Amino acid sequence: MPVDTPDLAVALVVTLTAAALQGTIGFGLALVAVPVLSLLDPALAPVPQLLISLPVTVSMAWRERHAADLRRLGWVLAGRVPGAALGLWLLHTVARETLSVVIGGMILGAVIIVAFGVALPRTRTTSFAAGLASGATGLVASIGGPPLALLYRSSEGPTIRASLGVVFALGIAMSITVRAAGSQLVTDDLVVAALLLPAALAGLWLGRRFQGKVEGTALRTLILVVSGGAAIALIATSAV
Prior knowledge:
- The chain is mostly helical.
- About 80% of the residues lie in helices and about 0% in strands.
């Protein structure tokens, strides 16, 4: 087995918690799990989170498909394609620690700007840019949620979850394909993902029980807190 049993037990709990967060606000599985599990055992992250996120996001998109913002999703998805290619190029040319610091700094900067009241309108340009950033960060660190969550932050909960679910499902499929083509996907990643998947699905089910309690201001605040915390954790993980 790629990881020790005690580490796997901790990873299952972390995955359950992270998936519950994603089921509640629309993202968070990789944001929470990747920094924590990377410190626990490098074999646990980030690629396994990319793999288990696919069935999770497909389920999210399907469940609240009626609320998806299909008008702008085309531009977001168009940005994910070159974003994934950019991420693959960065993996081959820049040290992972440096990439994590840069990605964490960019996300933290965006969170601070939005927190100070700067509105991020959903236009073709911002949608494409968010897709580009999400594609690159998703492939490099399996953390593609914050750029999209900040783009949709002013929307209602069902729209955020459904729209992010559609983008993540298609974008993750592209990222997995690009990683496989670039020899960035190994057998151990598949094994770890298979072991963690039941916990992810259980967490998604649990998160749905909290959806009605986290809306409006609470949802927008939680998006900023989770995104900012993930950025700090990613930078701290690289430093360690």
